[in-house]
């Protein structure tokens, strides 16, 4: 058998290609011997190929085997040598970092802060905005509202459910309240009545037991309940034998048919009991019944916009068919995720922007430190290059040190992120608190670690590459400062650019923090006149089955208030339908005597029933007329007190005292109410919502709707110390009456501003970190500048320059960086405040005071950072500085 010449040539080319491949893998100084060995081997094999025709099959096989074995040895042995060198690099890099403890501590800390903050915030964003919800195919679930924020009447819900063409199913729910008795201390439970298809629509199965049956979702059906997992554990000890047994709710026996899964939540986290809604046939045609919440599941392929258009068409038909009851009716379809997370989206995204700035500043700080460190180590690099270290070897050493820094910063950052989750849990929307428990997101941590590593590589390897190209003879002959000054002009410019960027980002965060701090101050200051820290509130909602008559409720309120007022430390006490911020409903339509409303406008006002001392107890100032008194009872003139917004809206330019209005239509049998007083506004619905028109009615004269449920006590001592005595006073009147929500008014304010407070605190912390890192960057840049110009400073001082001249030289350099960063930061802050407009309150997004004080604070910190290296420069000894060169 013969081998053609071209095949022998191809065989030789294959070996030469293998040699080139190994040349790429193997370092240069290890490559030479292997190339020589391979060339000798090739010559031997070329001679053998010449005799190929005379070789038997064993020799041919041996030739191929030896070629494969040699190539395998090259691939196996060389990585082992590389591995040994890598360990050497790691040991040397660790020693160099430990030798420069200050540099290592600052660089690792900056990275840890940037990585930890970003990991924590983006783990929160992933959990709230990106991670799939617990419901089956949650992307198909939507909420349907009337007028964008109100629930429909049962009749409107029924029409939506029966006439739509876009939903697989639709369910309704309404909030209820039960008193759980028979288990010791009576307990008030917030409950939800739901249609039987509610849980199947969500794709949720009970943890124990079964779901509601369709026949149980009817009026007069057997009373059954599903319990939340938390109630099952806290009140019933987690006993599975509870299924099928009866519990007493509102004095009636209810059979427990199941327990919902742990972490199940739909709406408020305090809903602990679920019952059938049981709408009657008459309710399903009512256009004026209690409002419902409606959830629906889209059909496959149907978009939210298509569903919204379909529901709007049905709503328009309802408005045309029932012009009196449904005039001006509208509707809106929103995704369930948007409904649950809508209020949290902008704060979380702004926090993401803030922590991204912190990470950028940390990376820029690291870059500046590495640039300065590489410049200072130029003499070392030159010596190592002179001793035979190649460019790749030097780059690999710098790469190893960057990896060690990034790894250390990543570990510290992960620990910082884990430690912050307990605080960040406050930023989880209330509707998701049972579903979401924050934990470390490794993907987010990896991305941040790679970002920090990229910064380390970019700023660590670039100067190493440049330093490895310098003229070794000149680098070794010149002094350190001369070498740095002469060879690193581009590096200086890059470092200055990094410092300017740090200052700009720090200023942006400072402006945002100042706006958020002022916002929180203004939110709370509007309630300062109430002295909320002296008010104790307690909820004693009376059940209809026991207090159906107004006389029964009046007697309960009077007895409780008499006992509470007699307690030591109590100044006054009163009852109200709801204290500010605890209930956002209660609006009633009005008819104003002598005035005609416009067809396109609706006159209404929030309705609050109060006892005679409530307004004084709360501390609302009287602007005109009088407060209620004991003479305002069921047999006296029907009266009302209104707030100033209602007076201004419905009687503009007039004195409302003595004017009359009626709740409902003019032809209704309800009595006309005479205005006897005007009180100051108080924001009832939300801390940042405009004050709505409100009317206060004496409890003794009012009908049962919106009956008082909140007890308010003004104390001369710490309010919470009165809680046991207040509870005992209520139980002395009715032993089975639960007392819930014992808290101060200050606690209510804090709870309503908890997300804003958390955002403000986090943003302020990020701003402080950014300011600190920017100051460190500025300090490092000027220290580097002083080191560069030590010979020049020595010459200046030798020629008679005074210390103030040297200080002026250094401060002028620092001032250039600060002014450049400040100008860019003001522009960036102007853009940022446009995005923060929905988060600020009581202060303009372009607040002159903020845009004056934030740069001033930055300037003070920057001056301190510049002063230290400037003072050090004045201590330069001219003789020593010149002799070093």
Characterize the structure shown.
- By secondary structure, this protein is α+β, with helices and mostly antiparallel strands.
- The protein contains 25 helices and 21 strands.
- The protein has a six-stranded mixed barrel with strand order 2-3-8-5-7-6. Strands 13-14-19-16-18-17 form a six-stranded mixed barrel.
- β6 and β7 form a beta hairpin.
- The chain is globular and about 110 Å long.
- The N terminus is likely disordered.
Q: What is the strand content?
A: 5-15%
Oligomer: single chain
Averaged pLDDT, please? 82
Number of strands: 21
Summarize the biggest pleated sheet: 6 strands, mixed, barrel
How much helix is in the residues?
40-55%
Give the radius of gyration: 38 Å
For the biggest β-sheet, the strand order reads 2-3-8-5-7-6
Roughly how many Å apart are the termini?
A: 77 Å
Name the shape in a single word.
Answer: globular
> DSSP helix count?
25
Ranges where pLDDT stays below 50 over 5 or more residues in a row are 1-5, 24-34, 479-488
Instruction: Provide the structure class.
Output: alpha+beta
